[in-house]
Write a structure and sequence with these properties.
CATH class of the largest domain: Alpha Beta
Structural class: alpha/beta
Largest sheet: 9 strands, mixed
CATH architecture of the largest domain: 2-Layer Sandwich
Number of strands: 15
Helix content: 25-40%
Radius of gyration: 21 Å
CATH topology of the largest domain: Dihydrodipicolinate Reductase, domain 2
Number of helices: 12
Oligomer: single chain
Strand content: 15-25%
Length: about 350
């Protein structure tokens, strides 16, 4: 392995503890060297040699840190990413990259000006359920696609304790929280839509932010893609439903990485990311005689480690990162837009 990349996390909450630190610690190209912890100092319990700074400024001023992970609340992403780039750091940013297209463009421009790379962390492209669906679509076995549903439901009928998710600040609401994942998956699968129709809802008592969204993305050749999420789903529906000329595919959300990480199971452990067989996708294909054949498709295992491998290869070997600037700007055009009908030019 070439020169190791010293890396700093801007926070050590759930995101830092589960989605970044474990993968940085097992990848041989990274050294998880520092973290910002404003209040409780907990990171050293998991990583005894880590340096814990009291402020983000202290971490950004550390000359040994080459890569910074911006995993702070959504409304801070633009400012902290800008600061990190100006300090000469490469930056990996949690979704959403920024609240607006204008801010995202400014960050990409600054990245080019400083000669430091900026990457967007879209981990749901590496979920086992999504990988299974993408494999079937790419194989072409379903024939011409007609209708695709992508959804990610939760149940919380009250106002959550994380105030930064519940206050009306830039980049807040369910569409920026989960919509950033689902719209990214649609764009990864099908590219830029011709147009989209957007609906937002506010259902929980005293909510200040949207807790429901529904996007209808229209693609060429009459492909209709529906992206949806609600905070009021005691019985979540299938995460992916696809209907096509030659059959249908139904897949429930089954990725177990988060659950395993919560149990301190490391990404390099045997069985990591292997979803239960009972949650396999159901593929129903129409046979030449008109009968239907049902198959169960076990997913390949999920792992977020390729994200960090992609970052490493981009920094050290100038390889292209899998989430492109064009895709990020496309996603934010949809998230930033008001409710109603919009065309892509």
């Amino acid at each position: 392995m070439e020169k190791i990349i010293n890396t700093g996390l801007l926070a050590y909450g759930m995101s830092g503890k589960l989605f970044h630190a474990p993968f940085l610690s097992v990848h041989p190209g990274f050294n998880l060297s520092a973290v910002t912890e404003r209040n409780e100092k907990k990171a050293h319990q998991d990583y005894p040699d880590i340096t814990s700074y009291d402020s983000i400024d202290e971490l950004l001023n550390d000359p040994e840190i080459e890569l910074v992970v911006v995993n702070t609340p959504n409304f801070t992403h633009y400012d902290y990413t800008r600061q990190a780039l100006l300090k000469g750091k490469h930056v990996l940013v949690e979704k959403p990259f920024a609240p607006t297209v204008e801010e995202a463009k400014a960050l990409f421009d600054l990245s080019r000006e400083t000669g430091k790379q900026v990457f967007v962390y879209q981990n749901r492209r590496l979920d086992s359920d999504y990988l299974a669906v993408k494999q079937v679509i790419d194989s072409g076995v379903l024939g011409k696609l007609a209708e695709v549903h992508i959804r990610f439901d939760r149940y919380r009928n009250n106002i959550g304790p994380k105030t930064f998710k519940e206050e009306l600040v830039p980049g807040t609401g369910l569409q920026y929280d989960l919509g950033a994942h689902l719209v990214d998956q649609a764009i990864d699968l099908f590219g830029q839509p011709l147009s989209f129709y957007k609906v937002l809802g506010m259902n929980r008592k005293d909510t200040k932010v949207d807790d429901y969204f529904h996007f209808h993305l229209q693609y060429p050749n009459s492909l209709q893609v529906f992206v949806c999420s609600t905070m009021l789903a005691p019985d979540p529906q299938a995460a992916f439903v696809i209907h096509a000329m030659q059959g249908s595919l139904v897949k429930y959300k089954a990725d177990i990485q988060e659950a395993q990480l919560l149990k301190d199971i490391r990404p390099d452990s045997e069985g990591f990311g292997e979803e239960p067989e009972e949650l396999a996708a159901t593929l129903t294909r129409v046979q030449p005689d008109g009968s239907k054949k049902e198959e169960r498709l076990v997913s390949e295992k999920g792992s977020y480690l390729p994200i960090f491998e992609g970052v490493y290869q981009a920094i050290r070997n100038n390889q292209p990162y899998h989430v492109t600037e064009e895709q990020v700007l496309m996603q934010l055009r949809i998230l930033e837009a008001p409710a109603g009908f919009h065309e892509f030019n």
